[in-house]
Amino acid sequence: MATEVKLFRSWSSRYALRIVWALKLKGVEFEAIFEDLSNKSSLLLQYNPVHKKVPVLVHNGKPVCESLVILEYVDETWNGAHPLLPKDPFAKAEARFWAKFSDDKLMPLIRKATLGNGEEKEEARVLTAENLKHVEELLKGKKFFGGEKIGYVDLAFGWMAYLINVLEEVSGATLIKKEEFPLLSKWMENFYEFPEFKESWPDHDRLITKFKNYG
């Protein structure tokens, strides 16, 4: 029986891109269904009636929602190629912690530091620098967060590899200086240049327009 894999995404969703990358690493063929988030399809609302958002992975008719949940599903379902999470329970727990850190702590701070206003923006820039030190520390002695190969934490932080430059350009602020964060800067380059991901990046100019309009 053939496996049917569909991914509901948008052109710019950083969360959906995680799933694109994971499926590419696993060598899984899939159909990408691009949603207009201002006019969501009935299928998207059917498959994700709770949050009504992308990404949604539909595997043989069964929907899986929320990007970090989907990553684990992909890793467990196609477990024969390129493992994303470590087997050790403690290392696995750590990976999940840092993925949540990316979404719940770092991403909102960087958003405020670049797209915010006034005191909130200045405070966010200070806090962003402090929190980026944790990320830099994680990369000591490693090419990727997963070691020599891209893993779960790399995919969680993957948005930084392309979106930081966009947000810096829009805001005129430099958040990640090579001299301050050499390991993180190198990781961003390595992740962005990773051959399997080359064709997945959203259009830079279109992203600039999108985030300028947020202001």
**CATH domain class name of the largest domain:** Mainly Alpha
SSE class:
alpha+beta
**Strand order across the largest sheet:** 2-1-3-4
CATH topology of the largest domain: Glutathione S-transferase Yfyf (Class Pi), Chain A, domain 2
Helix content: 40-55%
Distance between the termini: 50 Å
pLDDT averaged residue by residue: 96
CATH architecture of the largest domain: Up-down Bundle
Which overall shape is indicated by the principal axes computed on the Cα atoms?
globular
Strand count: 4
Uncertain stretches of 5 or more adjacent residues? none
Gyration radius (Cα, Å) is: 17 Å
Protein name: Probable glutathione S-transferase
Family: Belongs to the GST superfamily. HSP26 family.
Catalytic activity: RX + glutathione = an S-substituted glutathione + a halide anion + H(+)
Pfam families: GST_C (PF00043), GST_N (PF02798)
